[in-house]
Amino acid sequence: MISTGKATLIFPAFGINTVITMPKIGIIGGSGVYGVFEPKETVKVHTPYGRPSAPVEIGEIEGVEVAFIPRHGKHHEFPPHEVPYRANIWALKELGVERVIGITAVGSLREEYKPGDIVIADQFIDFTKKREYTFYNGPRVAHVSMADPFCPELRRIFIEAAKELSLPLHEKGTYICIEGPRFSTRAESRMFRQFADIIGMTLIPEVNLARELGMCYVNVSTVTDYDVWAEKPVDAQEVIRVMKENEEKVQRLLKRAIPRIPEERTCGCADILKTAFV
Ligand SMILES: CSC[C@H]1O[C@H](OP(=O)(O)O)[C@H](O)[C@@H]1O
Ligand SMILES: Nc1ncnc2[nH]cnc12
User: Fold this and answer.
1) pTM of the full predicted structure?
2) What is the 201 CA–ligand 1 centroid distance (Å)?
């Protein structure tokens, strides 16, 4: 039995009369971010798409109940093209989450987006090749609008919070998502510079899937490197090192922004589905 709202969930799948809390906010942590609080509960969720990257941790940030999934697994065992994106989003939805905060490490395609900067992306370009992009593989067919892929209300809250904390911030940025797991060639990187600001491997299909379930999604990116268009080519260890160095900024941002998220949504993200079905 699932009851919506703030209350509790009695879900036989978790064991007889297991009672867990229902957080409305979910965080998906990226490279270098494998936990954001001391969990009060850890929930093993089974979904029609298999298991999420890890059991979902439930805890509090500044008194607000939050669910957390490390995107790549607790020990970074899922590469970007093998992350169980559908299971992650489904599991959060099933636990009552309405708003998803996606934390990512990104390369910079612009001189002015510097390592350590925070970017609240406003657009994306999908250069991935072979992922599970949708919950609607038929017979129910949906075409969700992606003109403005991120929740305007969450973006505003995170931008204001980052400004108040005087974090190095870019209020906008186009995130190009590549398939990975390899990094780009110099020629690819030069091409991507023509039309994007930051580069990563995981925003897609996470944001699409959240939208398909009527959830809000905001991307909080930390720049970790200058990709390969600049002199020194990026490597994975550098990404993790820079992300770890900057994790505390992300933590402060979460603590400032999350208590500002209102209980009820006024953004319209849930309404997008109304016109999506054929
Ligand atoms: C560890 S280097 C490449 C890896 O880092 C980024 O992960 P995430 O977006 O989950 O922070 C990038 O997308 C790659 O998956
Ligand atoms: N340069 C880069 N390319 C792709 N994904 C990244 N994640 C962090 N830095 C990256």
Assistant:
1) 0.94
2) 6
Residue ranges of domains in the chain, CATH in brackets: 25-271 (3.40.50.1580)
Q: 69: which strand partners? A: 28
Pairing of strands 169-170, 118-119: parallel
- 257, 153 in Cβ contact below 8 A? no
Measured between its terminal Cα atoms, the distance across the chain in Å is 30
- What is the mean pLDDT of each successive set of 10 residues along the chain, which is 278 residues long? 36 49 93 96 97 98 98 98 98 98 98 98 98 97 97 98 98 98 98 98 98 98 97 95 97 98 95 95
CA distance 43 to 51: 11
- What's the per-residue H, E or C state across 28-66? EECCCCCCCCCCCEEECCCECCECCCCCEEEEEECCEEE
Which residues' Cβ are closer than 6 Å to ligand 2?
A: 105-107, 178, 183, 199-201, 224-225, 227, 234, 239
Distance of CA 276 to the CA centre of its chain: 22
117, 122, 197, 225: which one is catalytic?
Answer: 225
The reply to whether ipTM tops 0.90 is yes
CA 4, CA 214: separation in Å to the nearest integer? 15
